[in-house]
Design brief:
heterodimer; A: 308 residues; MetI-like fold; 2 domains; 15 helices; B: 337 residues; mainly alpha; globular
């Protein structure tokens, strides 16, 4: 606001004077720069969006912007084709099955832990919290080999879990939960700490137990922080490729959308008409989440990054 | 598409959506029930561990202990025999193009440095420029949107931008249409190892994709910091006759420096771990390998877990400065609390 307000105060220069003209030119250049930057950022997505509705023979012979002038030749064929051919429906289902528990588990466990870090006293509290902060920066790659070895040795792999009648994603859920915990705990503990302590004291005087305070006071007051965290973790898991590749591999019956899309990219090669539609399918859920909850998403990013 | 498969899966879906939270709540309620049965004196000693226990256990199981195990394994061969630094020696042999050197070069110079600079400069530029127009909100949303989609989808979007047809044919890729419009031969952006096979051009093409995806992140944070600068400070500078550029250089930029550093540390972690974009676009061919991708290939194609562990440790070494910085920053903030 500050800079904008100051800059917007159209200055005191008299209309038609030299400084007035200079200012007008500067404003014009500013708008051009802003619009140009935005266009550069939008064009790639726009190109793919337009192409996904074009017939295959046109995609391979003409550029996408020719579709924006008559004759308009649009079709839904790519979408129906890719749904028929590529296990996309199964992959969408898998993505939900992976993302929902992989969000619920770490956020809940982190809320428990954050409550303890913020409002309980126990030996080593600060050191353990410091360890969580340190682990924020540790690359996940460091954990893949031992965790995968452990999963394989103890049968926590999709085929085996399925034969036991369990969901094949249990290992992946736990891994995502473990990976998401340092950030989730850090974010929530910082938020819980800022809640007014009188609230807790008066609740305790009224005889409220720890559970009541947590579920009736802390959680309702923390809805904004919880919402940002849930969105963040959900999108992170939904968009993840590497962790899914490591723990459930590329098999179509358990793999998420990202794995499916990456496989399509390799197998279809130049068959872009199907790839365009598949890419858009994979973007629907994140874009809906993003557009409807953008404010919380941005708040989560700010809380996570502007430390302290 | 066969929807019957999905309908058969609905009971699983419901039981997971209901079951997982139920187990977690049952845990805390049950444990609290037990804690209340304890004598008064023991209760405050046991209770915190009930609440913080699951998180510590999971972080230990999935992050801390595996990291230690990887460290140990990087000094062993694939049968668990201690072999000293041999894994590292193999990975770092044949400088400048053998072993993991191409991946090291790309991860450190191309991704860590160039990518970080791109994201910071574009983010800062947008934060400052967008702050001065009335339609800021919508423009920021459009820039930020790629943050929501996966790097896999971004890569598909950009494969389309980079599409290449032989010279003389109609160019269907946006960039090559632009290039041929200016009477230049079309460029195979992802394969072209200009200059002299070093591979700067195609690596730049890859970081363009990631920059496009992440600039919204740095823009949002830097923009928030910019709006936190007191208006009277800038007003005072203007009254003193300072031009907009001077104000940016002498007032805005120094005040934003702490935030820029924080964004940079986050970007370091992103950059060193980058995997999706090279995996989807080139699979590390044409001199575009990175450490994370090399480690994945060592694990999955060669089943060489020892070598993969050594590469993972190299990754860790690259983020140690950030890790130390984060811890110091955190302790400084704690001290002020």
């Amino acid at each position: 606001m500050s800079v904008a307000a100051a800059a917007r105060t159209e200055s005191t220069a008299a209309v038609g004077s030299l400084s007035w003209i200079v200012q007008k030119v500067q404003r014009f250049a500013l708008h051009i720069a802003v619009i140009l930057l935005t266009l550069v950022w939008v064009i790639p997505t726009l190109g793919l969006a337009v192409s996904s509705f074009r017939p295959a023979f046109l995609i391979s012979t003409t550029a996408w912007w020719t579709a924006l002038s008559p004759p308009f030749q649009f079709t839904l064929q790519n979408y129906t084709d890719v749904l028929a051919q590529s296990n996309l429906g199964q992959a969408i289902f898998n993505s939900f099955m992976i993302s929902i528990p992989s969000t619920v588990i770490p956020v809940t466990i982190a809320a428990f832990a954050a409550y303890a870090f913020a409002w309980m006293k126990f030996p080593g509290r600060n050191w353990i919290f410091l360890a969580f902060v340190g682990l924020l920066a540790v690359p996940l790659q460091l954990t893949f080999v031992p965790v995968l070895t452990f999963f394989v040795a103890h049968g926590i792999v999709p085929e085996n879990l399925q034969s036991l009648g369990l969901p094949p994603w249990v290992g992946l859920w736990l891994a995502h939960a473990g990976y998401g915990l340092p950030f989730s705990t850090y974010l929530l503990a910082n938020f819980f700490r800022q809640l007014p302590s009188d609230l807790f004291e008066s609740a305790e005087i009224d005889g409220a137990g720890t559970l009541t305070v947590f579920f009736r006071i802390v959680l309702p007051l923390s809805v904004p922080a919880l919402a940002s965290l849930v969105i963040f973790q959900f999108l992170w898991v939904w968009n993840d490729l590497l962790v899914a590749l490591i723990y459930v591999g590329g098999t179509p019956d358990v793999g998420p959308l990202t794995v499916n899309l990456a496989n399509l990219t390799n197998s279809l090669g130049q068959n872009y008409q199907l790839l365009t539609a598949a890419a858009f399918f994979s973007m629907i859920v994140p874009l809906v989440v993003f557009l409807s909850l953008q404010r919380y998403f941005v708040r989560g990013i700010l809380a996570g990054s502007v430390k302290g | 598409m066969d929807f019957s498969v999905l309908i058969g899966d609905i009971p699983t879906l419901v039981s997971v959506i209901v079951g997982v939270p139920l187990v977690l709540v049952a845990y805390i309620v049950g444990a609290e029930f037990l804690v209340r049965r304890l004598p008064d004196k023991l209760r405050p000693q046991v209770r915190p561990w009930i609440w913080v226990g699951p998180a510590i256990a999971m972080v230990a199981a999935f992050l801390f202990l595996p990291a230690v195990a990887t460290f140990i394994q990087s000094f062993q061969d694939n049968h668990g025999n201690f072999i000293g630094l041999q894994n590292y020696a193999t990975q770092l042999a044949g400088f400048p193009t053998g072993g993991a050197w191409i991946a090291v070069r790309n991860s450190i110079i191309v991704w860590l440095v160039l990518y970080m600079i791109f994201v910071l400069i574009f983010g800062l530029m947008m934060a400052v420029l967008f702050d001065r127009v009335q339609y800021e909100t919508i423009v920021k949303s459009l820039i930020f949107m790629p943050m929501a989609i996966s790097s896999v989808a971004s890569s598909v979007i950009w494969k389309f931008m980079y599409q290449y047809q032989p010279p003389g044919e109609t160019q269907t890729g946006t960039l090559n249409a632009l290039v041929t419009f200016f009477h230049h031969d079309p460029v195979a952006w992802l394969q072209d190892q200009w200059p002299n096979g070093i591979g700067i051009l195609n690596n730049l093409a890859l970081i363009t994709v990631a920059t496009w995806g992440l600039t919204g992140f740095s823009m949002v944070i830097l923009s928030a910091a910019l709006k936190g600068i007191p208006a009277d400070l800038l007003e005072a500078a203007r009254v003193d006759g300072a031009g907009e550029l001077t104000i940016f250089r002498r007032v805005i930029f120094p005040l934003m420096m702490p935030t820029i550093v924080v964004v940079a540390t986050t970007l370091v972690i992103f950059a060193i771990k980058v995997f999706d974009v090279p995996y989807v676009m080139t699979n590390g061919n044409f001199n575009t390998d990175v450490l994370a991708l090399r480690m994945y290939n060592l694990m999955y194609l060669s089943h060489n877990y020892a070598a993969a562990s050594a590469v993972a440790i190299v990754l860790l070494v690259a983020v140690v400065p950030v890790l130390v910085f984060n811890l110091r920053q955190f302790r400084a903030v704690e001290a002020r609390r």
